[in-house]
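Hey L., structure's done. Input below.
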Amino acid sequence: MIGLPLSVKIMVFTEPTDMRKGFDGLGALVSAAGEDLYSGHLYVFLSRRRDRAKVLAFERGGFVLWYKRLEQGSFKPLPPSTDARMALDATQLSMLLDGIDIRRVKAPRHWQPSAMRIDTAPAT
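Output:
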């Protein structure tokens, strides 16, 4: 699993991307989508055949590009989205890159503390 801080967004572009694009071409797609290229967030691109994925990010002083090519099979389709991109969390990204169909995974509800109650009763 990829350990990422909660402040890092992971955006997957849902339209197929030309995998010949490098740092500048993918960066142009990110900028055209209105995203901040230098934010440190991860931007994920999938090929038309869904057997290749690239992840673009900016780290201290420069860009990083991770590339994964599957030797067999393909990355599973993403849940339907009305936008050209969708947000994932680190677990979903890890599952996607491992070939797991994230549409079929049902995540448990995470516990959240209830709002703090203020005692309004008068002190005696």
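The chain is about 15% helix and 25% strand. The longest helix spans residues 23-32.

-- N.
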